[in-house]
Prior knowledge:
Layout: E1 24-27, H1 31-42, E2 51-54, H2 61-66, E3 70-72, H3 75-81, E4 84-87, H4 94-101, E5 110-113, H5 120-126, E6 132-136, E7 146-152, H6 158-168, E8 172-176, H7 182-190, H8 192-209, H9 214-235, H10 239-246, H11 252-262, H12 265-285
Parallel strand pairs: 1-2, 1-4, 2-3, 4-5, 5-6, 7-8
Antiparallel strand pairs: 6-7
Helix pairs in contact: 7-12, 8-9
Bound molecules: NADP nicotinamide-adenine-dinucleotide phosphate.
NADP nicotinamide-adenine-dinucleotide phosphate binds next to helix 1.
Amino acid sequence: MHGTQNDYTKSPCKMEPGVQDMKIGFIGAGNMAFGLAQGILRAGEVKPENVIVSAPSSNNFGRFQDMGVAVTHSNMEVVTASQLVFLAVKPHLIRTVLNEIVQHVTHKHTFVSVAAGVTLETLENLLPGLPVLRLMPNLPCVVQEGALLFSRGSLARPEEGTLLRGLLSSCGLVEEGPESWIDAHTGMSGSGVAFVYLFAEALAEGGVKMGIPSVIAHRIAAQTILGAGRMLREYGKHPAQLRAEVCTPGGTTIFGLHELERGGLRAATMGAVEAATERARDLSRK
Ligand SMILES: NC(=O)c1ccc[n+]([C@@H]2O[C@H](COP(=O)([O-])OP(=O)(O)OC[C@H]3O[C@@H](n4cnc5c(N)ncnc54)[C@H](OP(=O)(O)O)[C@@H]3O)[C@@H](O)[C@H]2O)c1
């Protein structure tokens, strides 16, 4: 499997020449398609007129049309108009959609699936002889702060990985890894967003308990999490080091941290990632 030979620590690469003229399609016009399309257009290399999106209803078309992207009810039209096709429908629809379009697929096509639990093996069986990549984004893509992990199928070359990285650079962090990491990434980062929301809620409720009005407490909690996250990313230090820097001996923070340790926050969070990963694995097997 080529995945084990890759250098997964590579830094993001520049976009390939010719990407300006690349035609990009999305099958499915939901939240994930929107987040990715928005990120691709924000990166500035791809023109909106080179992007096309399909869905059965017009319910989600408005926000794509606002970006200057073409819309259609025909998945076949997306395939014939595009070289790079994102599959952004719910996982149970992947087989139906691919059976519908497969006769229009040619060797100019590369497919990128974001469908949770749909393996590269399944995609390669449904799209024989074609380069296929599996991408797992998370919802903060819609605010350009996503955490994305992709894996290449057996026919996808490193160049296709480089292209995808470049295209999605404005969606947030883009990493490449073996497919075996995808479920853990889903548990840690896809579901992890909800774990952080729970922590935000609890932090704010602590503030409310201590007398801060709820609306303000929630705003402060969101900013605290954003600030801590940015420091983690921008300083590149281990979280334990940043945490130690906030702890004055005998001060407020170490008293609070002791309560969190007593409550088992660390073990509960690790257990949550493990449970969500196992659930993603179960769903992939169904
Ligand atoms: N949301 C997340 O956080 C997240 C994270 C990682 C991966 N994903 C994956 O991303 C994929 C899409 O999720 P989502 O949250 O964007 O879902 P969503 O908002 O429900 O969007 C699904 C889209 O698929 C369209 N659709 C339904 N049947 C179709 C068909 N036969 N042909 C073409 N389009 C069809 C829907 O059309 P209408 O507009 O007419 O309803 C809708 O635009 C899923 O496979 C999911 O596993 C999502």
